[in-house]
Backbone:
């Protein structure tokens, strides 16, 4: 088996068929399996997956649960069931848009054995408005991405990732299992074995909606979880030193928090976070200026952010 496509689902009856169809539409000349783990959905998701399993018994391997275990446990146990030399990820509420996606990513990994994985750009689609924006787009990012860049920029999304099945799923570090999401620690663990390669092609859609594990959170809640994850890394990471990278990332999170507080009209908190972030992080890395902050301040006063 060359490629395992790992899919997790929970109450995604409106989306799961499109996700699975986008995998089955892949044009490849190698064997793939679709490994699906549903976390005890209360809607029609399991029935829909069972239908695909019955129609494609040689491709689809479905594991249902008798109780809800949570997204992190479901995510990593699903990966542990993979049998492929390579693993591709797709969330049950996302879908791929390029029928050559797997072929493109696997060809890069086969040609460059020192790489840990490959990711690409994606559309972020707001389910309520239908509007789309590119996750990376015209931004300049490194073509080869290591651990430090992953922490600072966090450009990888789940359904863009294809990587070597190189980890011991039975011996994952405790910090990874305590993380708020699974894809971010996974990307770091893979990068510990070899860097990621970025492909600028847009080959998937990430749906942002209220029921999403991450997209359903407020910005402030996301920032709080990011801060907690940085603390986990600082306390438990056993590889190369990440101290300076974590320190810079914290300042970047304070900067983002300052902008959000200003937009919400909490200007006292906004300026406190501005002070904590340090002026250097606004002028330097990565491409955000004080103009954005003071635009948010104007918004907090009832004006227009861009005025």
Residues:
């Amino acid at each position: 088996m060359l490629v395992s496509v790992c899919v997790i689902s929970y109450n995604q009856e409106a989306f799961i068929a499109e996700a699975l169809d986008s995998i089955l539409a892949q044009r490849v000349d190698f064997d793939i399996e679709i490994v699906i783990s549903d976390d005890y959905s209360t809607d029609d998701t399991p029935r829909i997956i069972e239908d695909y399993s019955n129609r494609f018994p040689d491709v689809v391997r479905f594991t249902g649960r008798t109780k809800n275990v949570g997204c992190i446990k479901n995510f990593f146990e699903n990966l542990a069931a993979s049998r492929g030399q390579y693993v591709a990820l797709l969330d049950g509420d996302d879908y791929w848009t390029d029928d050559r996606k797997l072929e493109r990513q696997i060809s890069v990994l086969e040609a460059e054995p020192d790489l840990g994985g490959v990711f690409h750009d994606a559309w972020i689609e707001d389910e309520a408005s239908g509007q789309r924006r590119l996750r990376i787009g015209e931004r300049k990012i490194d073509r080869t991405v290591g651990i430090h860049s992953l922490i600072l920029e966090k450009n990888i999304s789940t359904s863009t990732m294809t990587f070597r099945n190189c980890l011991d799923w039975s011996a994952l570090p405790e910090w990874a299992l305590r993380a708020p999401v699974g894809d971010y620690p996974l990307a770091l663990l893979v990068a510990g074995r070899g860097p990621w390669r970025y492909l600028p092609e847009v080959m998937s859609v990430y749906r942002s909606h209220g029921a999403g594990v991450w997209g359903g959170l407020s910005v402030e809640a996301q920032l709080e979880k990011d801060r907690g994850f940085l603390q986990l890394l600082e306390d438990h990471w056993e590889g190369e030193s990440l101290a300076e990278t974590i320190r810079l990332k914290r300042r970047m999170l304070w900067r983002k928090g300052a902008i959000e507080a200003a937009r919400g009209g909490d200007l006292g908190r906004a300026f406190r976070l501005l002070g904590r972030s340090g002026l250097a992080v606004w002028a330097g890395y990565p491409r955000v200026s004080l103009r954005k902050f003071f635009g948010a301040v104007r918004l907090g006063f009832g004006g227009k952010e861009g005025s």
About this structure: The longest helix spans residues 243-263. The two ends are 56 Å apart (CA to CA). Strands lie at 3-9, 32-38, 60-63, 86-91, 95-96, 117-126, 132-134, 144-145, 162-164, 196-208.
